[in-house]
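hi! just following up on the protien thing from before. the input was this:
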Amino acid sequence: MPKFILITGRTAGQGEALPKGKESEDYRQATECIEMNPVDRERLGLQAGQRVRVRTAFGEAVLVLREKELPEGMVFVPLGPGANALIGAETRGTGMPDSKGLEVEVEPLCG
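and the predicted 3d structure came back as:
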């Protein structure tokens, strides 16, 4: 299965949805997604809007695939519940877990 490099971060959509609360549908939609280059998406036979399983050595999350102009081999997940499941908890004394540069697998969700 092809591996990708995970980058996480905050988005403008999160900022707009935050006043409605982290339990709101707008915030959920802003954070429960993964962005991928169209070439990578096509290579995997995936469609934008499709739910996919994303795995790291720390855990996995089910996210909605969005197409975005990113470098090939890189994916982006907004910080939130999905990203938290992927990045692990170890901080090595920094107070912040590694949230960039992790290796991930992306596969279609069957069913």
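The chain has a mean pLDDT of 88.
The CA atoms of residues 43 and 58 lie 25 Å apart.
cheers
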